[in-house]
Amino acid sequence: MLVFALRSSNGLASAATIGALIAGLTPLVVGLIMWARRPPSVAATTSTPEQVDAARRQLAGLVSSQWQTEIIVRQLDDPGPLAVRWHFTELDVADRAEHIVRTNPLRSLFRRGGPRLTGRTDRIGDMATEFRRLTRRRLVIAGEPGMGKTTLAVLLVRELLDHPEPHDPVPVLLSMSGWNPDAESLHEWMSRRLAEDYPALRATAFGPDAARSLVTQHRILPILDGLDELPAQTRPKIIVRLNEVATDPLVLTCRTAEYEAAVAAPGGDVLTAGAVIESSPVMPADAAAYVAGCLPPRTLNDWRDLLAAVNGDRRTPVTQALSSPLTLWLLRKVYVDTRTSPAELCDMSRFPTADSITDHLLDHLVEALIRANPPRGEGDEHPFRPRRTWDPAGAKRSLAFLAHHLTAIGTRDLAWWQLRRAAPRLIALVSGAVAGLAMGLVAGLYMMFVVGPANSLAVVPAALVFGSVVGLTRSLTVGLGLGLVLGLNFLVAGLSAFIEGQPATGLIITIPGGVMTVAAVLLALEDVGHPADQRPAYVDLRLRGRTRLLARKLTGWNEKRPVLTLGVSLIPGIAAGLATGLSNEFIHASTDGLKVGLVFGAVVGLATGLAAGLIDWAETPLSDERPQTPTLTFHRDLQLLCLKSLAAGAAAAIAFGVLDALTVGTGRSYGLAYGLSGGLLLTLIFGLLNGAIYALGIALGAGLHQPSGRYLITAATFRVQGRVPARLLSFLDDAHRLGILREAGPVYQFRHAKLHDHLAREYATHT
Predict the structure, then answer these.
(1) N or C: which terminus of the chain has fewer CB atoms within 10 Å of its end residue's CB?
(2) Which domain of life is it from (predicted)?
């Protein structure tokens, strides 16, 4: 067909011939697209047993490295774990004893056959042994706020990884915040979280579904942290979901009152075969020993009064306050690390209750951490010290604002891509309008140059209005943004034709050109993904060890669908070229129109296919990839935004360079532009300029819809309002290094829920 069109001396002059060509192309194009979209074969979607074994080993190493780093940041081994005692609960919230442990008939005869799960956090090896003795290894860690539930879970992860038994599953700690049990089962949610938090599992070396296979084959021990952080009406549903897989081992942490309420709620239930342990208050002798172990020898005299008070009357506020692991940590940070005398804490007239002492410590925590941990000098960066100097008062205000924002949206997860939810709707609309106007201005200036200065007054306002509408809708994907930029080309050209008194010409340019271009580009980018997804995307631009994969992605088989990337992209490209050629045939009665259109379409298809292959390659992880962290996810999402803009811009540059070379001197509708392009080299340069303009338009449009682009707009808005410091992510990274925040995969959380709630209340009180 293409050869016929190029060789024909008379072109396709008659409407009948054109109609026949379109009729013949339509079923071919539709059939090929449906074939490309057919479900992949079963064999292509299942990881082999060898791949699952390799993925399990890789995941174990990643989890071990991740939590060892977190243990160092939290100083859990410095000087050593606090001695928090745990015992089997006396509340009626556990399953029957015979379901939890294998009972001894002789012990049962004397009514001593019940579970005897006890232990201490500083003797985690013994607790791991007790856990392994449970019939189904299902455990609930309950306790009051600040009593060390998450600390026990973290130390249990390390112990199980450091001293594994044959065929042990990999313990993976997952924050439960964000799990909707009405939408996802436990296995579905775990599979998604593993793929998101550990992108290495999506490497080609592990097959197409390693994360799901690890979950369904019971290779994962989920340690689910924070049931109490979910809405009250959701907690009973979570337990029901956990009981749907009653033979799966798991560990669950929750505050005691919240767990008791979830079990007693209508439709609630105990965790099947689940043991429930609770923490006891820290013994005064253990608290005093821990504090003394943290003190430098020369400062011990300043602490004698407090240590004596802790070891004395247990009814004093200071003794009651320091029975909590959280308060002991706060004491260490506010007084021990700052070399400050704690004598004032023994003044009962100033601190009449344990809560007043805890609130005082929470008030001064941020300032104490920043002052006691200044950045190192140049060239002496410490991995667990802040990189920059921050104003203590400003840092506390910013953290309070963020805590208040999280409380308002009902989550503990500080996800940078969701900060836009804290922005007023007006700010979101204004930012959308600005970006839309910018995109429209770029396209308008380009078309003003193309159609000639005579129409500039009409072209630019039309483009600005159109771009404004695009920005305000805030619902377009990057692919649609690209299609609209290209379609705008035809729209403005059509408007120009109307102004020149050629309404028929305007309709012919606008309708087929705009519609077909949008459809063609969307089809061409269909395999690239969905850039407007709420969560950030993965991207890796490293070439080492990935050149063969790059070559395969650019020219070979697409694993997502069994078709050649270039072949699929060629189909919509030719469709767009056909629309352009037909428009030119009708307008100028030129026998070259369809030829140029088909060649242009082929070039567009090939260039778009290469761009799609490049993006697909960038989104394929390596098998040795690190777990996702907040800063890593941001930088990679931003890289993907830039990559997609550059790839699409390069494809446009190639296509328009060829188009300009083919049409120099043949068309009147592009006027001044082609008059200035006096040769092949100049026309190719002009094509590259076109591509650069398109790339800029794409980047501006995508900025609203790629998570990193939205974050930059939101952070800049908050910075102008004085709510957060400049370089917000760097500030959050340093807050993690200081121990104020903790990393939970790609999100941050405040280290303790009490700290989160305290800062949120403070912000609400002072605003």
Answers:
(1) C
(2) Bacteria
